[in-house]
Amino acid sequence: MLKPPVDPDLPHRVARSAAATEGAVTRTADVADWLDERRRAHRFEVERIPLADLDGWSFDEATGNLGHRTGRFFTVEGLRVTTGEGPSRHRWHQPIIEQPEVGILGILVKDFGGVPHFLMQAKMEPGNRDLLQLSPTVQATRSNYTKAHKGADVKYIEYFTEPGRGRVLADSLQSEHGSWFLRKSNRNILVEATGDVPVHDDFVWLTLGQIGTLLRRDNVVNMDARTVLSCAPLPDGDGLALHSDTELLSWFTAERSRHDVRAERVPLGGLPGWTRGEWAVEREDGRYFGVVGVAVRAGSREVARWTQPLFEPKGLGVTAFLTRRIGGVPHLLAHARVEGGFADTVELGPTVQYTPANYAHLAGPDRPPFLDLVLGADPRRIRYDTVHSEEGGRFLNAESRYLFVEADEVPLDPPPGYLWATPRQLTRLLRHNHYLNVQARTLLSCLTSGAVRLR
C-alpha cells in the first residue's frame, strides 16, 4: 500500500500547537504551581562529596579511569585531541565521558480539540541548579530502561520501544555535548498516541506554544526536552534562502572534509595539565571544567539514592545565533564547529558557543569570533535572552545564556567556517543524524515553539 513520502499536514498541525499558548488540559499559568507541587511531593537532595566517597565508583589502578563496579552506566577517561597539520596543528588533553549506549529521549503527542499536545515530565536531575525541570515523556539510558540499576520501570517506555504503539512523527540520532561526551548519541523521537494515555502524577499535557512560553523562563525546560522539540517539523514558509539546500550541504560536507580531527582515548591518570585532588579532577590553571562527586536522594526517580561523578564547568556559557534578514527572509549564522567528542569531526553549531571566563586573558584577534559582538549587543537588537541548564544527569550547575542577536553588519559572505542559513533549512537537517549540535538544537526549539519570533 503506497503512501505519500511526507505527511503534508504534519507541519501545519505542529504550527497550530505552537500558536496555542493555552492548552485544552492545563492552563499555562498553572504550570509553575504544578512544578512547585511536584517538588514538594518528593524529596530531592544533592550533596557534594569527596571523590573517594563515591559508592561503587573507583579509579582504576592501571589507567586512573573512573568507573562503576558493574562496568555499566559510564566511565570518565582521558582524551587526546589533535586537529590540523603542520603550523596549524593544535592539541589538547581533557577528561571525557565514555557512554557508548544509545539513550531514548521521547515525547508522546496527542490531539486535544484538534491541537497536538506534548506529554511532559517533571523530572529531577542532580546537576540542575533548580533540580526539577520539564523533561521529555521518556528520558532514559539503556541502563535505565533495561533496569541495570534494578530500579523501577521507566513509565511510557513501551511507546518508544514497541513498534505499533503509536505513529512516529520524528525519529533521529542526535549527539550530546561533543566537548564532554565521546561519540554519544540519543534517539530523539516524537510518537503520536492513537488511544487513551494514562497520565501519572509527574506528567502533564502541554501545547507547543505553552512550552514556548516556558522557554522564555530561566531553567524550566531541560536540555533533553529542547533537543526533541527541535525535531518537530514546521511549514516551509516561502521557501526562499540565500543558499539552496544543496549548496548548504555541499559547504557542510567540505567543512567536514577539510578538518582533520583525531580523538584518542588515553588514561585519565597522569593526564597532561590536569590534577586529581580530594574533591575534583581539574585543570592546573582552573579553567574549563572539573570532575566532582555528588550524593543524591530523589523520591521520584527509578532509584531513590545513589552517588555519581559529574562534570562542573567554570562559569556561565554564552550561546547565540546572530540573525539578519536577507531579501526579507530571516537567516541564522551557523558555525561548522569542531568538538573532540563528535562522531564525525564537525557539526553545525550556533554562531557563538563559548564560556567567556575561559577567554578573559585573550585580546584582539585572539578572541573567539563574534563573542564580543554578542556580549556588547545593544539590548534593542536582542530578540531572545534566557538561561538554560545543560544535561543535568552528567553536568553540575552547567548553564548557558542562550540568545538571538540581530547583526545586520555581518556580511553575506562571512569568515570561513560560517554560513547563513534559514531556520527551516537547519530544522530540515534534523531529519538526519549528527548535523546540528545540541546547543543549536536548543535555539531552534525556541523558534519551533514560538518562544522567539525573528523580525
From TrEMBL:
Coiled coil: none annotated. DTDP-4-dehydro-6-deoxy-alpha-D-glucose 1 binds at residues 57, 141-145, 224, 391-394. Residues 29-231, 246-447 form the dTDP-4-dehydro-6-deoxy-alpha-D-glucopyranose 2,3-dehydratase domain. DTDP-4-dehydro-6-deoxy-alpha-D-glucose 2 binds at residues 179, 274, 337, 353-355, 358-359. It holds the Pfam family Hexose_dehydrat. GO terms for molecular function: lyase activity. This is NDP-hexose 2,3-dehydratase. The lineage of its organism: Bacteria, Bacillati, Actinomycetota, Actinomycetes, Kitasatosporales.
